Amino acid sequence: MTLQGHSTKYWQRLDDGRLQCDVCPRFCKLRDGQRGLCFVRGRAGDEIVLTTYGRSSGFCVDPIEKKPLNHFLPGTPVLSFGTAGCNLACKFCQNWDISKSREFDRLQDSASPEAIAQAAVETGSRSVAYTYNDPVIFLEYAVDVAKACHDRNIKNVAVTAGYITAAACGEFFEHIDGANVDLKAFTDRFYWKVCGGHLEPVLDTLVYLKNDTDIWFELTTLLIPGENDSPAEIDAMTRWIVGHLGPDVPLHFTAFHPDWKMLDTPSTPIETLTKSREIAISNGMHHVYTGNVHDYAGGSTYCSNCGEVLIGRDWYELSTWNLKIDGPEAACASCGTEVAGVFEAQAGTWGARRRPIHVAT
User: Fold this and answer.
1) What angle do CA 32, 38, 44 make, to 5 degrees?
2) pLDDT at 98
3) How far apart are CA 202 and CA 68, in angstroms?
4) What is the DSSP string of 21-35?
5) CA 157-159-164 angle, 5° bins
6) With contact defined as beta carbons under 8 Å apart, do 11 and 48 qualify?
7) N or C: which end of the chain has fewer CB within 10 A?
8) 359 with 348: CB under 8 angstroms?
9) In the prediction, which pLDDT does 109 show?
10) Segment 219-239 mean pLDDT
11) How many whole angstroms separate alpha carbon 59 and alpha carbon 359?
């Protein structure tokens, strides 16, 4: 049966008649009717189409800190949604029922870009997050939603593994205001063995975000016992971050819980998160967080100069607010040291609420 979907442009015809998808570094080479590894981009006749345009696995209003973004409009609600499929094959995926879905036709809500943007306005969301699965693979849909959101003064957030080609990078990130990039490890062995990908394209994406965009971005690394949690690897990774991205890029170390194809791997001890945070700070990183655990100290934001608590966090509930805001600039109210991020004069009050919604087209 011929695939149906939305036309795309990041592909090329090969000499053997196959079409190569150029959105991500997998470069899937397809004959008519075949799908890429992501499952949602496939060949229909003489073009590559996106089969999930306009359809979502569901919508929910979340705290922005859940993305996680701690320096981007703290305390505000974000309308979150994803589609189906993924261009990596992480054995530990905690959203595997969405990212590896092969039955999305009966699971998804239909929603136009304009309807999503309007839903963000009606729910009081300050931003829309493309999340749950990687928005790189539904690039055309994400871009159209992002444009509609900007028309209504709604910001856009990408939660992504950064596994994207240089050719597609510019258009994908052009309308994005904030991002959390999942830096899964700092060895190619891990990326290939556990995720079916490679490290270098992700590092290239991070350098692009730093040098060629004004996007506020943060990093997340899920620490998996025995796989990517050694002090030596954390040391190498955080030294690279400071050297290539600067000390102000926040890094979130999050705890692994057994899931999908790694059910026999133990959960991450909180001591591993704490030690990794200490290594990162000792290497010059200013803002390092722990996640997926209850840890007020590891979840709060501190001044890199005087050490005062700038934003207190108990899970997703904010307490202390010790920032002085002057236009787009933020500083420690105690010593005046500049604090990097996107802040407003007051923290939002959304808290830890999670509110599923239906978006009517």
Assistant:
1) 20
2) 55
3) 18
4) E-SSTT--EE-TT-B
5) 110
6) yes
7) N
8) no
9) 74
10) 98
11) 7
Query: Is 181 exposed, middle or buried, given 0-12, 13-18 or 19+ CB atoms closer than 10 A?
Result: buried
Give yes or no for residue 272 having a pLDDT over 90.
yes
pLDDT confidence of residue 96: 53
Identify whether 250 is preceded by a cis peptide bond (ω within 30 of 0). no
Query: In the chain, where does DSSP find H-type helix?
Result: 96-99, 113-122, 139-151, 166-173, 188-190, 200-212, 231-244, 270-282, 296-299
Q: How far is CA 348 from CA 22, 79, 122, 155, 360, in A?
A: 39, 15, 17, 15, 27
Domain coordinates of the chain in residue numbers?
Answer: 6-50, 55-294+335-357
Amino acid at 307: G
* Dist CA 267 CA 254 (whole Å): 11
The CATH fold assigned to 55-294+335-357 is: TIM Barrel (3.20.20)
Q: Which residue has the tokens 């979502």?
A: 56
In one-letter notation, the amino acid at residue 14 is L
Q: List b or e across 256-273, with b for residues whose CB sees 16 or more CB atoms inside 10 angstroms.
A: beeeeebeebeebeeebb
78 and 132 in contact (C-beta within 8 Å)? no
Overall average pLDDT of the 108-120 stretch: 92
Tokens of 283: 């290497």
The amino acid occupying position 4 is: Q
DSSP 194: I
